[in-house]
Amino acid sequence: MRREQIFSRDDYHCVYCGEQFEAEALTVDHVQPRMRGGDRSAGNLVTACGACNARKGDARLAHFLHAEPVARKEFFARAAPHVWPRILRTLEEDLERLERETSR
Ligand SMILES: [Zn+2]
User: Fold this and answer.
1) How far apart are the CA of 36 and the centre of ligand 1, in A?
2) pTM for this model (two decimals)
3) Which residue from 32, 36, 41, 39 is spatially nearest to 6, judged by alpha carbons?
4) How far does the centroid of ligand 1 lie from the alpha carbon of residue 86, in Å?
5) What is the pLDDT of residues 53-91, one digit of tens each?
6) N or C: fewer beta carbons within 10 Å in the chain?
7) Distance in Å, CA 104 to ligand 1 centroid
8) All residues with CB under 5 Å from ion ligand 1
9) Burial class (CB in 10 A: 0-12, 13-18, 19+), 15
């Protein structure tokens, strides 16, 4: 999957802040990290701006979305329809676990 195809699918909007950018300011982010078995298929790739990608850093997506409610809302509104259901389910389970842990 080419970068431009991912950007185009997401209409050049960052899936975390929801802002629209030029292609030069955008990066392709893996929903499931490569080191955790994520591949480079369309359902595992989303558009992220440089600033959001830098803030996310090496954090797991569930932790990042848990810490940033805006990113969470934008991600589920923009990216969820394109992400493989299996990956989305794992993400939702991770988020639910984080919520249970922090509400104790
Ligand atoms: Zn962003």
Assistant:
1) 23
2) 0.92
3) 41
4) 24
5) 999 998 999 999 999 999 999 999 999 999 999 999 999
6) C
7) 31
8) 14, 16-17, 49, 52
9) buried
